[in-house]
Amino acid sequence: MNYRISTGMMYQQSITTMLAKQAKLAHTQQQLASGQRLVTAKDDPVAAGTAVGLDRAVAELERFGMNASAVQNRLGLQENALTQVGDAMARVNELVIQANNAAMGEDSRKAISTELKAIYAGLLDLANSTDGAGRYLFGGTSDGSAPFAIAGGSVIYSGDQTQRQVEVAPDMFVADTLPGSEVFLRLRTGDGRIDGQPAAGNAGTGLLMGFGVTDSTAWDGGTYTLSFGAGDTYQVTDAGGTVVTTGTYAKGESIAFAGVQMRIEGQPANGDSFTLGPAGSRDIFATVQGLITTLDTNPTTDAQRAAMQNDLQAAMRDVATAQSKMIDARASGGAQLSAIDDAAALREANNVTLQGTLSTLRDLDWAETIGRYQMENTALQAAQTVFMQMQSLSLFKLMG
What we know:
Blueprint: H1 7-34, H2 45-99, H3 106-127, E1 148-151, E2 154-157, E3 165-169, E4 172-175, H4 180-185, E5 187-188, E6 194-198, E7 207-213, E8 224-228, E9 233-238, E10 243-248, E11 254-257, E12 260-265, E13 273-278, E14 281-282, H5 284-295, H6 302-362, H7 366-391
Helix pairs in contact: 1-7, 2-3, 2-6, 3-5, 5-6
């Protein structure tokens, strides 16, 4: 077999060798310039694929962080709004106590009523607070328009009952702001468990000053009516009309029955009655509006003045319950803000772990790469030297 060596072949082999070495050197230079071991996926397909998955996980943590920032802003604004609502209700309570003074004149009551109207408008504005991005805090998931409005003299709610759950870390959710129905509408009356009120037609001066459950095991959750007869006698009947207890009324003493008690002051008239039963619910706006209506009246008889005092006593109880509701709502928001802080710590820990793994996969081993660069550069120079020497060779020089 004959082999033929030509000048062209020798040139081509030398050029191919130099180009290969230049390509390796250029790749190493790219690694040194970028500080990355993986310049292209072919450098290490398995590591490159793993790194892409980790990049997605890091990007997901960033999105969780943005979610947390948004809901933290909303919860912070909710806290501010509820603080102002609590302050407003504290002022309402002060005004009710002032108005409940028997020496209060009509002009003074009208002045209190005027201030209550301003507080009413302020509460409505707070209930329609926004998050600065055009979304309403207390609208639930229907937060694109104002959730509260006045219609027919009363406040209506157009939001929904849903409270968003926002993911702020992997498999970690926090609740968004409370729906307005939970904050402003569903407020228990009385002491939050039971409530009492006088009959509308009472003719005496009896005042319902207090009530409460004394024995939870004895109270069946029913409604009872305390009725007064002649000679300060009374009887208590249940919802079916069955007499539960009877007795003689003594001013200021509590009347106990069925695990509850009522305290009446003043002088009830024959035929007057008071009802005690499970607490209902009333919105905060109706409570304030009821106060305004009460104070805008001008009682002229003892019975009318007693009715006003009973209304003011009931309002004080309802306001106190509303204040407790605001405290509970603020506590709920505070718990979510604390959870956001915990989520931030979790995201940071996960991010550190992911970045460490990415560094292992992608970052350059500078000592190894610099050594390889020097070796590849020397090899390229050697190939170039061989090529230069080859250019001076000719087979014709060997013929003579």
